[in-house]
Write a structure and sequence with these properties.
5-stranded mixed β-sheet; single chain; 48% helix; alpha+beta; 8-stranded mixed β-barrel; 970 residues; extended
């Protein structure tokens, strides 16, 4: 008979087999020439996708190229080999993958432009060339190339659910951009840019002809220089916009030469214009020689452009920038000398500098979009147009001009236009709504669809917003005052809803009735989506996507509300804690731990039914509300299935990881039980399972609450212990081994509970560390020990002793520790050198970087730092050099070791410490012979009951007076 458990385990077995097969396949591919590309997911709504970042370039790979395909729908990666189809191929390849996630066949085109100004570089720029020779898909035949003079265009067809890897045969190792377009969208974009280019070319051509005619008519020297600049700009635009290819037949190599020549011509004409317009020859003869040499040098670049266009273009770009920079100084200098030509040139030169800054951002790749290149071409035409007006203004009118002021109405209109908001105008009397510009276009509707009566908006509103929209307008008309501030959702033509926000105010007529309502309507979809994402993140775990503790309790409360109504709902709460998860994080890293949590989340989800809830309560702790099972036996089987699912080995970084879990289980039996109480019971059961060794399921028992109650009461008493002066400090002597003299004391905390008597630190310190009390206890220990030390010194004189105080990990990671200790030292006037702070290796391990920064500041302040329990933790030598410790304390386990290697180990550690100029304190010395032996090996100090037990402050004072009777009294 096949049981339910076997049905659950069978898919798990097949899944593990599939995972193992995939891992073996990945290992086989590690030595290949190219790794598998991650597919880019596309859907019907994706009209344009930039594939540049996801495309992998492989240079100098030879005529035959092997690559692993992206994993298909079956999860299998395949190996394909592509051979070059052209003799011009230099061994450069590009690989990318596409995945059709829609349910219909998609037609797309792949576009790789020949030239792109963006990121073309200032020196040795990329002037364009053919980029892609052919593209071979992992399925089917090579892609068909579509005719295009400006780009390499290939048509592709993607079947529903297919994942295809494409291997592009490159003519050069550079691939500035590769785009995936929807054919109609690409055609519309090309047409739009063609229209824009045609307009710009027409303006540039007319401007060049017009300035040439003016030169013939007027004959002044500045006009031919301006006309030359206009013709150079026209030539540059003809090449950049691809118009030259329509006039004459040129190859991609010739295009690079033409482009370099036009950039050289632009730089040369720019120098000529600046020299001629400012008439620099009249100011200094040497300026004429410099300009002539500059122009001759640029003229030589025409010859260089034929052999190496990149060098010529790079020098021309540099010349253009230098000319603009020189123009700044010349205009400033001549402007202060009241030269009218320089003053008139200021607006045009400011525009040139703005254009130059934009061009620099573009060629360096900091400004990256498809609009910037044609925009810079249009900017050049605008610069020439402004220069032409300036030249004509000076030549014909002598430079006089006026500047008008905006009226308030014009200013408001311009501000509204500049904000990008849409005007919403409701003519109440005629019941006609008009939006300017027409909002119908933004929604993908026909022009004017949203114009007309206000009721025409209702069918397109979200069903939940229609009544509110109608009621808001009715209230506004009824009250005849106030403002309209309303947000609603409206359906676009593609079926998606857009959030719109209307802000308007009514306009009253002579009879007091509203005749119009005018304001703005703004698309706030992005803001709403951002708020929804923030709300989702506030209620869900960012890593696993599971509900967090707050949502878990809310759902549990809802389930408990339904439970008393019958026997159909009998919820069971399970709290799952991963055993030794911290060890995984410490050994493999946080990223590995996160991946393991995600994998475990997927496993647990497979075991749930729709009515069950899984949440992440804390770091490695999950909560589960089981509603689908009510029978205790089935609940136990379910918990056992969870335990087994977690124990299935995980493969990470060629390592097999087996995890276990401690599971606490609490079923609903009491109708008065609250959600928080039921979760607390499950957590108590989980903690009991963890204390029992983990890897077990522990049902809740009422007796478990007594342990938690005692712990809670002890925590409450500990919070009041400082106020009630129940805490005190005792001090254990630390003796100098060479003469058995007292060298210092270690401060130890004691708690005298009024009812339970003396409570050892091993019992209340863990409770304090698990709450926020540890910081208060730590500061109490520091203040009390410092105060006692100063009291001893006042009564015995300058006694050469120190006091060691233990720090907790919470204090070490507190950013205010350094300031608190400095304030304490200033308050008590204590010498920092008389204090030592003791830390264990495990504390430093929790956050090494934070610990290094804090300890560095404390060391600079003059305090001593001791590494406690050395020899029991990681004992990493890196901590002795990385952190500023000046003392190490050997743990008593190392001192009392009875093995034959004890003496060798102790000598090695002590010798190493002495070489590092560190002092050594040995704990747990049991006999005088051990003390003498340690002293011979170079150990500085000893601390144990052999030298004295922990004692109160009065006993310490008597001891100091006995040991240091001749010390000068204060």
């Amino acid at each position: 008979m096949i049981t339910d458990r076997m049905l659950l385990m069978a898919p798990a077995g097949r899944l593990m087999g599939a995972i193992a097969a995939v891992l073996i396949f990945v290992l086989m591919l590690l030595g290949g020439a190219a790794r598998a590309a991650e597919p880019v997911k596309i859907s019907r709504d994706d009209t344009a996708l930039d594939l540049t970042a996801t495309t992998e370039i492989y240079a100098n790979q030879g005529e035959a190229f092997q690559v692993s395909t992206a994993a298909g729908a079956d999860g299998i990666r395949r190996r394909i080999e592509v051979r070059a189809s052209s003799e011009d191929h230099q061994g450069d390849w590009a690989v990318f993958a596409l995945a059709n996630v829609s349910e219909e066949q998609l037609e797309r085109v792949i576009v790789a432009p020949h030239f792109r100004l963006v990121n073309s570089k200032l020196f040795w720029p990329d002037l364009g060339s053919q980029r892609v020779i052919a593209i071979t898909p992992s399925e089917g035949f090579a892609l068909d190339r579509l005719p295009s003079e400006e780009a390499d265009v290939f048509r592709i067809t993607l079947n529903p659910g297919s994942v295809i890897t494409f291997v592009a045969e490159l003519s050069t190792p550079e691939l500035p951009q590769i785009y995936l377009w929807e054919p109609d969208a690409y055609k519309d974009t090309v047409n739009a840019f063609t229209l824009y280019r045609g307009i710009v070319l027409g303006i540039a051509g007319l401007l060049a002809v017009f300035l040439t005619i003016l030169f013939v008519v007027k004959g002044t020297s500045m006009l031919p220089a301006t006309a030359a600049l206009a013709w150079a700009v026209l030539g540059y635009i003809c090449v950049d916009f691809g118009f030259l290819e329509k006039l004459i037949s040129i190859t991609s190599g010739d295009q690079r030469v033409w482009r370099a020549c036009t950039e050289v011509a632009l730089a040369s004409s720019f120098v000529i214009f600046l020299f001629t317009y400012l008439n620099l020859n009249r100011w200094h003869a040497h300026l004429g020689y410099v300009t002539l040499a500059w122009i001759l040098g640029l003229a030589l670049l025409f010859g260089v452009a034929i052999y190496d266009p990149s060098i010529a273009a790079g020098i021309a770009r540099l010349s253009f920038a230098l000319t603009a920079t020189a123009g700044i100084f010349l205009i400033i200098y001549l402007g202060f000398n009241r030269y009218d030509r320089a003053i008139l040139l200021v607006p045009a030169w400011a525009l040139i500098l703005v254009w130059l800054f934009g061009a620099w951002l573009t060629v360096t790749g900091q400004l990256d979009n498809d609009i910037i290149q044609p925009a810079l071409g249009g900017g050049l035409v605008l610069i020439v147009l402004l220069i032409g007006f300036t030249v004509m203004q000076h030549a014909f009118a002598g430079g006089a001009f006026q500047q008008g002021l905006f009226s308030d109405l014009e200013r408001q209109s311009l501000a509204l236009t500049g904000s990008g908001d849409t005007v919403w105008d409701w003519d109440v009397a005629r019941d006609r709504v008009v939006t300017i510009p027409d909002i119908s276009m933004r929604l993908g509707l026909s022009p004017g669809t949203m114009h007309g009566p206000a009721r025409n908006w209702l069918p397109r509103l979200h069903p939940d917003d229609r009544d509110r929209f109608r009621a808001t307008l009715d209230v506004l008309l009824e009250h005849r005052r106030g403002r309209l501030n309303h947000e609603f959702r409206i359906r676009a033509e593609d079926g998606h809803f857009h959030w719109l926000s209307i802000r308007a105010r009514p306009v009253l007529g002579s009879n007091g009735e509203i005749i119009r309502c005018v304001g703005t309507v703004v698309d706030v979809t992005e803001q709403k989506n951002s708020v929804e994402r923030l709300l989702h993140d506030a209620l869900h775990d960012n890593l696993t996507g599971l509900p967090n503790r707050q949502v878990f309790l809310d759902r549990l409360h809802a389930v408990l509300t339904l439970a008393p109504g019958g026997d159909l709902v009998r919820p069971t709460v399970l709290v799952i804690d991963i055993d030794r998860y911290k060890l995984v994080n410490d050994s493999l890293g946080v990223a590995a731990g996160d991946n393991i949590l995600i994998a475990l989340t997927r496993r647990l989800r497979r075991l749930l039914k729709p009515q069950d809830t899984l949440a992440r309560l804390s770091g490695d702790q999950f909560g589960l509300i089981l509603v689908s099972e009510r029978d205790p036996a089935k609940v136990a089987d379910f918990a056992d299935a969870i335990s087994k699912a977690i124990m299935v080995p995980l493969n990470f970084a060629n390592r097999e990881i087996i995890l276990t879990a401690s599971i606490g289980l609490a079923s609903w039996v009491d109708q008065q039980e609250s959600a928080a109480g039921l979760l607390s019971d499950a957590e108590l059961a989980m903690y009991r399972a963890k204390r029992a060794g983990g890897n077990r399921v522990e049902p809740f028992q009422p007796a478990f609450r007594s342990f938690g109650t005692d712990r809670l009461q002890l925590e409450t008493d500990l919070r009041r212990a400082i106020e009630r002066k129940e805490l005190s400090m005792v001090y254990q002597p630390i003796a100098r081994l060479e003469d058995a003299e007292i060298a210092g004391f270690e401060a130890l905390m004691r708690w005298e509970h009024p009812k339970r008597g003396n409570i050892p630190p091993s019992e209340f310190i863990p409770i304090a560390e698990a709450s926020d009390i540890i910081s208060s206890l730590g500061m109490f220990a520091l203040e009390q020990a410092t105060s006692d030390l100063m009291s001893w010194q006042r009564q015995t004189g300058e006694v050469p002793i120190f006091v060691s105080i233990n720090l907790s990990s919470v204090q070490l990671l507190n950013n205010e520790l350094y300031d608190d200790i400095r304030s304490l030292l200033a308050k008590t006037h204590c010498n920092p050198g008389d204090l030592k702070l003791e830390l264990t290796e495990s504390m430093v391990m929790e956050n090494p970087e934070q610990a290094r920064l804090v300890l560095g500041k404390l060391k600079e302040a003059g305090l001593g730092l001791a590494l406690d329990d050395f020899g029991t933790g990681y004992s990493s030598l890196a901590y002795l050099t990385r952190f500023p410790f000046d003392t190490i304390k050997l743990d008593k386990a190392l001192v009392r070791d009875t093995s034959d290697k004890k003496a060798t180990v102790l000598r090695s550690v002590i010798s190493m410490a002495r070489d590092l100029e560190m002092q050594v304190v040995a704990e747990g010395i049991e006999s005088d012979e051990d003390a003498i032996e340690l002293a011979k090996t170079g150990c500085n100090y000893g601390q144990s009951y052999l030298f004295g037990p922990p004692m109160g402050t009065d006993s310490v004072l008597r001891l100091l007076k006995e040991r240091f009777p001749l010390t000068k009294r204060a």
